[in-house]
């Protein structure tokens, strides 16, 4: 059986356009010119290329530039042998536009949900040896900035032991850096900056901040944040640079706010267990809030500043700590005056510790 | 068969309509959103298929044969080859800073920037190569056998040499790199030859370069002439101050107005010279858009985007291509029998690096 149909043809070897007739013979066809016959070609090797002008353009597998251009009404016995037109691309064409859009939406929502929620379950599954190695790789000896004196170490040890049931898998250090800050890092590492210790007016203030950082360690926040960031980077990698980074930051920020609240809750609980008054921590936040200016803004957290900041505002954190005071409870100081002096002067006494920072935290 | 182009008014003609394009762009936007951006590779491909198929060169439409999956694979490769190492290097250098090895961290960061700089150059080259190798006309395509690694080095040193003499070498480096890029490209059996000159570009560049100085001098001259005519603020009173304020506002506005205009004027000359220096066998090219055309194009693009609250952004590929084709011109002749298939290798992946850095092609 054969059929003839006028078509345009490029052989892919030269740019000469040929007028041909398509001659179908079973699952193969020939292209007939006035004096030449091209082929046979197998219909199974025919690919859809594009639509141009008023013609559908087909190519041939493994034949670079080979083209068959069919315009006008194509006889049904020929069109039945040809591959379907491509419109959106494989999957969308197979499912149909509406169904594909719904399926993609569901898949995307699921992917984001997994990335946002799974770190909470995954972080505890990461072996502590990995956590520790990461912490060691990151911190090492902190460039020799850790301070150490026998009496100061003992005071710090006592403070940690009163705040945590398993102090042995924590590594708390005071670093000779003149900044009011403290950080929790992988591997149970907590670093108090000397600037914070010096600025504190009582050991209770240091205890509250330390317990907060221990809270980050115990709740595995560092590993969670790391996993979440990596997951979001992969999932949102497809979005254009800026919008992706913005979405990424917003999502991870809201989670860091949640982590901060969790760490504060942990801190209040630990202070209560150690019979240390939270009023010291509250007054510490009060002083901080005067420094960062949030006291002057509205007390409600509805403002943009409250939403966008990565840390809960010091003002609201102060209120939370104040509320956790139990009336009539017999609080005792976190350290004796002698111990407190030793801790406070530890970095001044330790002449071997290097000072300075040369890096910045947020 | 010889096509003599000298008597035709334009060898390039664009037959697209923005309504047809909208029917591609809007579903693309929707699918891109619900796939968290992953569909954009297929979206780009669909748009190019349309734009190419509506572009006529002499007597035949162009074909875009690139695939969405190629762009996607290119993007994933860029992520694995650059994105991941970047994250790891950032982690390591942070760890180094923690350990107090700031110099090592600085060296590593510097190396990273150099590598990115190099890869950006390679990406420019490969994007052009990819586009030519996927563009067919009469069943013939373009391409290049050069992988672009040498070009990456040239990109580095020529850019730096362009910046060194207080940025006065920029026109030279831009033109010279354009020539390097196109001299490595071919279409069919013919190699492009790019011999654009940079010297005619200097006048426009100096105009752009000197705009801030000229405005400053203008302000000074105005001030002196005011003073010379006896118009001191004391004698003129409040009206004098008001006039001064108005002139200050006009001065600031003109700075923000003149600088982009001067930049466009420079770019229009650059593109005209660059395309004008291009030759393919017996074909010569010309780009007829002059500075006012570019400025009008730029302003209407801004108006479209602003008036549609940003939605008009999806029409920018259409507008850019139409502007490009409407002003392209070719002279000379093509011998269709001589135009045989390109023997350059075809890379299997798309514009990954370029896509990752989000820089324009051509
Ligand atoms: Zn915290």
TrEMBL record, chain A:
Residues 156-320 form the Peptidase M48 domain. One of its GO terms (biological process) is proteolysis involved in protein catabolic process. The chain crosses the membrane at residues 100-122. Binds 1 zinc ion per subunit. GO terms for cellular component: membrane. Pfam families: Peptidase_M48. Its cofactor is Zn(2+). InterPro entries: Mito/Outer_Membr_Metalloprot (IPR051156), Peptidase_M48 (IPR001915). GO terms for molecular function: metal ion binding; metalloendopeptidase activity. Keywords: Hydrolase, Membrane, Metal-binding, Metalloprotease, Protease, Transmembrane, Transmembrane helix, Zinc. Belongs to the peptidase M48 family. PANTHER family: METALLOENDOPEPTIDASE OMA1 (PTHR22726), METALLOENDOPEPTIDASE OMA1, MITOCHONDRIAL (PTHR22726:SF1). This is Zn-dependent protease with chaperone function. It comes from Sphingorhabdus rigui.
Automatic annotation (TrEMBL), chain B:
This is Uncharacterized membrane protein YjgN (DUF898 family). The chain crosses the membrane at residues 21-42, 71-92, 104-125, 206-228, 240-267, 294-316. Keywords: Membrane, Transmembrane, Transmembrane helix. InterPro entries: DUF898 (IPR010295). It holds the Pfam family DUF898.
